[in-house]
Amino acid sequence: MSTTTNATSSTAEKAARQRRSITGAFVGTAIEWYDFYIFGTAAALVFGRVFYPDIDPAAALMASFATFWVGFIARPIGGLIFGHFGDKFGRKNTLVVTLLLMGIATALIGVLPGYAQIGVAAPILLIVLRALQGLAVGGEWGGAVLLATENSSAKKKGFAGAWVQQGSPAGSILATLIFLIVGTLPDEAFMSWGWRIPFLLSAVLVVVGLVIRLKVEESEDFLNTQKLNIVVKVPILEVFRVTPKLLVAGIFASVLGIALAYFTNTFLLSWTTGQLGIERQVMLNVLLATAILQFIWQPLAALIAERIGAMKVMMGGLLLNLLLTVPFFLAIQSANVPFIAVMLAATVLGGSAYYAMLATFLASAFPANVRYTGVSAAYQICATIFGGSTPLLAQWVLTSSGGNPWAVATLYASLVIITLLGVSALARAKKQAGIED
Question: Which positions fall inside the Major facilitator superfamily (MFS) profile domain (predicted)?
Fold first, then answer.
């Protein structure tokens, strides 16, 4: 009887540990993505006028998007720094630091004077704080994925990874809701102080996230590497030495998972509310609806993947996005809001099915003793090359082509094709390395 009772107790404790890890990873990641997304929204709607008012509006928008990219340039640096500490000293404490760093940087943006008050120092300080955001999120994503998946049973690792991915739509929903609320202010009030409210709210959210995250146990896989004394002194060197093919394939497998959100939430928001003349509040409502759809669909896609396999779900979602390219851009060109909403929702279904499984797919590619560094390096290097550059590059393509939407459509389709090739290459590299999903 006592053996049975102990086994039952152990199973219950493992299940509780799994729930706490998934919850802690999800909440912290949602807050970090909220902070990252509000910057993207503000870059599309506000920063050009507040921090770059002395140049042509089109150039100011490009400068705003360039500032947005700075966060992505910093992300692989954050991934390497925090990945190093996460692989040497543990996932949990490292993630507490990333959450604090993100919250402080975001709140400071909320009180940063504009160009009219302090001149050129304003955009310089904005760039510095954006870089700190990038460092924080660079260390956050990989650690959160590992905290959730490494504390979960083999059967539930895919579902646990998908819930970490829920932080992206959850952060997007919260960011869009807050901007919808402050967007109801008169334009003068919104541009002077209303846009600051979402940034200041981050301080409150970080406190909530810290309370939850501090209750989470350290990853079992990391504790095992300590017991076996296989902690690596310089994890990034080991990643390049042992798993270079997995790293490169992982970078390209992540492209659309990173680029799609910033194509829609930043570039498309600017394009539709500017050149196409759609009202700001209307387009924010469309983006909110698609974020809610993503939040609902991703866990369902993960459950489907448990039955038919992650690769089928990922490749199917990517192929759907590729097939939808022409109707998606026909919708944008029409400036018809219902048409845009329907096609955007369809692309979200395809993209988020792939995105739901990306975290677990990447995490399973690297050995536990360098996993934090490997996952972070692959995802964040991709973010620098393809994520932050997407709004800037799309805007450049649109401007240089004289507003031709099909030039932008070609860029979009290229991102999908690169991702398809990357996912396929990573699957082959994992198979050659003898790694099972």
Answer: 21-431
